[in-house]
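Title: Comparing notes on inverse folding

I've been comparing how different people in this forum approach sequence design from structure. To keep things fair, I'm posting one structure and asking everyone to reply with a full sequence. Here's the target:
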């Protein structure tokens, strides 16, 4: 009797185990069922299908890590992973990459990128508008960051080079460009950099003495002459500093100005680079400008000029330079 009970219990346990194994196979088969629609899986046994499923999941995960970035042209660029080899063809973009902690990934820059000092040792690839195409391609970059206005964008893309075109003109552009480059680089919270810039500009504005508020400023960015208008990032910084830009927003960010326009506007203060300063009084009518007669002129060195005209991480430093200029000339100690 006991032997019979034991035998029946053994058979029941065996049947139970077989049923459990069958159920497990049914469940696993159900999980793998979508794979059967793919021809490569049709000949695989259950174990092989399991391995294939793992590989498929890994492939999907890898795809999920790819980054899509929409640049200033409205073009969406897909990068399979954070780029290890980067070329930048605009100084402000070079500075953003470095400020976000990825300077070590730069393999080439344009001839004007000179900050931070470490980038001066990198291969220089010509100007941003007309770079050395062969030189760029030879560096095998994972991505090229360059201006939308560059004539080389389409040429590089036709050669299979990934291009993200970005070109900031005002503060909102700078904030957006920092975010886009942060996406490209895989840097979390890239907007931290913008918050630091914004706080620095606020601090510079707080340093302006009340007597210097509403100073009417002409800021020249290049020979032509080209001016920084209210719509530019320089003009927006001047506004935050409490100054009045004589070049209205309607003229655009960096318009070419008729010298007579400045004579008619007769600004309180002129900001200009060292290279152009000696020629100011030779311009028609400029000798009569109150700012020149009273010495209300800030002449910036080439190093400071580079800080002032680049829409990037050093905008807070630029704001301090402009604030110091405004405060100094208000006290009558201009140079």
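Reply #1:
Here's my take.
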């Amino acid at each position: 009797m006991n032997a019979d009970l034991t035998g029946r219990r053994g058979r029941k346990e065996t049947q139970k185990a077989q049923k459990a194994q069958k159920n497990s196979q049914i469940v696993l088969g159900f999980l793998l069922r979508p794979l059967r629609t793919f021809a490569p899986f049709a000949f695989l046994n259950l174990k092989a299908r399991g391995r294939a499923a793992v590989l498929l999941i890994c492939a999907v995960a890898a795809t999920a890590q790819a980054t899509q970035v929409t640049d200033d042209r409205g073009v969406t660029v897909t990068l399979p992973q954070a780029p290890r080899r980067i070329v930048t063809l605009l100084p402000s973009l070079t500075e953003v990459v470095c400020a976000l902690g990825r300077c070590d990934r730069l393999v080439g820059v344009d001839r004007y990128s000179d900050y931070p000092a470490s980038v001066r040792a990198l291969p220089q690839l010509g100007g941003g508008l007309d770079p050395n195409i062969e030189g760029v391609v030879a560096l095998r970059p994972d991505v090229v960051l360059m201006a939308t206005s560059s004539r080389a964008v389409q040429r590089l893309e036709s050669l299979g080079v990934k291009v993200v075109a970005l070109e900031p003109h005002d503060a909102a552009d700078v904030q957006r460009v920092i975010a886009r480059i942060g996406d490209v680089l895989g840097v979390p919270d890239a907007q931290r950099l913008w918050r630091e810039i914004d706080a620095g500009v606020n601090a510079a504005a707080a340093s302006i003495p009340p007597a210097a508020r509403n100073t009417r400023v002409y800021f020249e960015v290049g020979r032509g002459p080209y001016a920084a208008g209210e719509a530019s990032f320089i003009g927006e910084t001047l506004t935050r500093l409490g100054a009045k830009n004589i070049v209205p927003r309607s003229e655009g960010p960096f318009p070419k100005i008729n010298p007579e326009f400045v004579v008619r506007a007769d600004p309180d203060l002129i900001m200009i680079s060292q290279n152009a300063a000696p020629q100011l009084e030779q311009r028609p009518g400029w000798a009569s400008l109150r700012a020149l007669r009273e010495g209300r002129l800030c002449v910036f060195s080439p190093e400071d000029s580079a800080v002032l005209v680049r829409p990037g991480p050093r905008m807070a430093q630029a704001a301090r330079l402009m604030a110091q200029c405004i405060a100094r000339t208000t006290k009558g100690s201009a140079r």
